[in-house]
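Incident log, support desk, overnight shift.

02:14 A customer reports that sequence design results differ from what the structure should imply. Their input is reproduced verbatim below. On-call engineer (initials T.W.) acknowledged and began investigating.
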């Protein structure tokens, strides 16, 4: 759950969705004895001296968020992540792509993962069935790339010129999820 687009402009709406909405769901699920699978964001970190760009050192679940450069990330890092620690019924899955109700949007996380042969979605369903809670970096531990695809990237300075608010740039360490899969196989999605 969350509001990414226009979060810099629509601050009250962003608070309602990202903070009040998420906490209300956690609270209602707690009252009903349910685990809440919270698809959250990994956009709460930025590379630093302990996690240099290109080093392969990713942020772990227990690391404290260090990116509050955008209003969106501020609501997620400072408010929601910190407050959800008080709910024993929440399983937070940090993803690195936006989720929206517009399934025709090619940037939508749900649209992207439904096109992959091997996906994390079945794992999240199994995690709910097993009542797993806590924070999980919910990313594939390896990169899937079409060998015919040519990726053109730009540096952080060029990125800053084309975005409305600063963007979190980080790598998440998925070893906790990978270790769970090795100990308690659920699917072949991470093979």
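02:41 Re-run completed on a clean worker. Output:
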């Amino acid at each position: 759950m969350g509001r990414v687009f226009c979060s810099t402009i629509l601050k009250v709406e962003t608070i309602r969705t990202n903070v009040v909405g998420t906490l209300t769901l956690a609270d209602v699920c707690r009252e009903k004895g349910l685990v809440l699978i919270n698809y959250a964001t990994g956009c709460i970190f930025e590379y630093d001296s302990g996690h240099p760009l290109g080093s392969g050192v990713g942020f772990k679940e227990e690391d404290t968020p260090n990116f509050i450069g955008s209003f969106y990330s501020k609501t997620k890092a400072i408010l929601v992540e910190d407050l959800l620690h008080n709910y024993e019924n929440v399983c937070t899955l940090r993803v690195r792509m936006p989720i929206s109700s517009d399934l025709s949007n090619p940037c939508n996380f749900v649209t992207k993962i439904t096109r992959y042969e091997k996906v994390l979605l079945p794992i999240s369903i199994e995690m709910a069935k097993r009542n797993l809670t806590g924070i999980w970096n919910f990313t594939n531990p390896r990169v899937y790339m079409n060998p015919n695809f040519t990726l053109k990237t730009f540096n952080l300075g060029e990125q800053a010129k084309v975005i409305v608010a600063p963007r979190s740039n980080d790598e998440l360490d998925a070893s906790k999820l990978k270790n769970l899969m090795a100990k308690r196989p659920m699917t072949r999605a991470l093979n």
